[in-house]
Every structure is written in C-alpha cells, then in structure tokens.
Design goal:
This protein is mainly α and about 80 residues long. It is built from 3 helices and no strands. The termini are far apart.
Length: about 80
C-alpha cells in the first residue's frame, strides 16, 4: 500500500484543495497573513501523514508524526 491510498491522506489532500480554492476569495489584505498561514497549515497535515507512513516501522516516530498532523489540523481549524 502507498500512503496516497490511506483514507486519512485522501481526505486531508481533498481538504487542502478545497481550502486553496476557498482562500482565493480571501481579502487581498490577508494574502500574506491569513491566506498564507491557512494554506501552509492545511498542506502540512497531508505532509505529516505521508511522513508518518514512512516512519510506520518505528512506533514512537510514527506516533510523533501523526501528532504533528493532528496539531496542524487544529491550527487550520483555528485559522478558518
């Protein structure tokens, strides 16, 4: 199995694409603050899930990366 086949990855990637499209409509004065931040934190969720998959043989590293993904998800929710 590839990490791209994981349901969590698929959902997070889909959310990234939706956030990107929605954020195009954010006010221009927010381009370098809110828009940038929400895009970066949402992309980090998928990236952390992919990294966790690569570390799955090492339980503590795996868990750490999944915690990172959860943290980035919470940050995204905060910005939204």
């Amino acid at each position: 199995m590839k990490f791209q086949e994981l349901l969590a990855y698929k959902k997070s990637f889909s959310l990234v694409m939706n956030i990107f499209e929605i954020s195009k409509g954010f006010p221009i004065e927010e381009q370098f603050s809110l828009t940038s931040q929400v895009r970066r934190s949402s992309r980090a969720v998928s990236a952390a899930i992919a990294e966790a998959y690569g570390k799955r043989k090492y339980p503590k590293h795996f868990q750490n990366k999944l915690t990172d993904a959860d943290s980035e998800n919470l940050e995204t929710q905060t910005w939204i």
